[in-house]
Amino acid sequence: MDRHARVFSWSNRGFRWSVVSLVLLTVVSLLVGFVWLPSVHPDFTAQGLWAAICRAAGVPSRWYEDTSAQQPAVASHVVLERNMARVTDAGSVGRGATLALNCTMCHGAQGMSTSNAPNLAGQYPEVIIKQLMDYQSGKRVHALMQGLAAPLSEENIRDLAAYYASLPKARTAPTFYDESLPALVRVGAPLRNIAPCISCHGGVDQKFGAPWIEGMPKDYLVGQLHAFRTGARGNDVQGQMRAVARTMTDQEIQEVSEFYARKAAAAGVQGH
């Protein structure tokens, strides 16, 4: 037996210890990497050795998994159609005014809230239609509004939307879109994929289905942005408002809300 054969022979004590040490080191490394380290995480669930190996390797443990029970929740069942923005029935506004008597305590006699409820005067019809239908289906949650919306027929909802759309909008103060505006309102935040508020909510353009928010009570706007940010409100069909609010800071929420609220406050409209 030559010299190299003797070195790698099992009869060589040094070779035996090297092999045993390597095996022990491998076992300890596996226990630490696949058992101990994962177990210290609060969301750890033991799913067997194969699942542990797959997690460590960064690959799925199941390639063909039934996801039929994991479909994402539908944000809204309402499909926005252009005819929602048109009032074709001459009597619709009158019928809506009668129905709106149930809404005056919160939304004001002429659609201008004296509380922290949203102003509805001049609101786009499709916005009111969608929100009432979302309350009916439970896609938007509010104990009082869900109860009030539940008995409304589709015609009732369209009549209410026609009435409030016929009222003058809350904004009466001059609008100046200049460098003094909050950055999110004027230019958005491109690095966070946030479009300017004025590109959807008026001022420059209005996205069909996006509400008119100038003159809204500040506390209402702050509350809705926080709800979108936390996911407490999720009836924005494509999740655009949740995506925007999720990256907004508390200061940005305050600045944007104050800007839109003072539109009416500056002209003495707020509180009518």
3D structure, described in words:
By secondary structure, the chain is mainly α. The chain has helices at about 5, 15-40, 50-55, 90-100, 105, 125-135, 145-150, 155-165, 185, 220-230, 240-245, 250-265. It folds into two domains: about 80-170, Cytochrome Bc1 Complex, Chain D, domain 2 (Orthogonal Bundle); about 170-270, Cytochrome c-like domain (Cytochrome Bc1 Complex, Chain D, domain 2), CATH 1.10.760. About 45% of the residues lie in helices and about 0% in strands. The longest helix has 27 residues, at about 15-40. It is elongated. Residues about 65-70 and about 265-270 have low confidence and may be disordered.
Task: Record keyword descriptors for this entry.
single chain; 272 residues; mainly alpha; Cytochrome Bc1 Complex, Chain D, domain 2; 12 helices; disordered C terminus
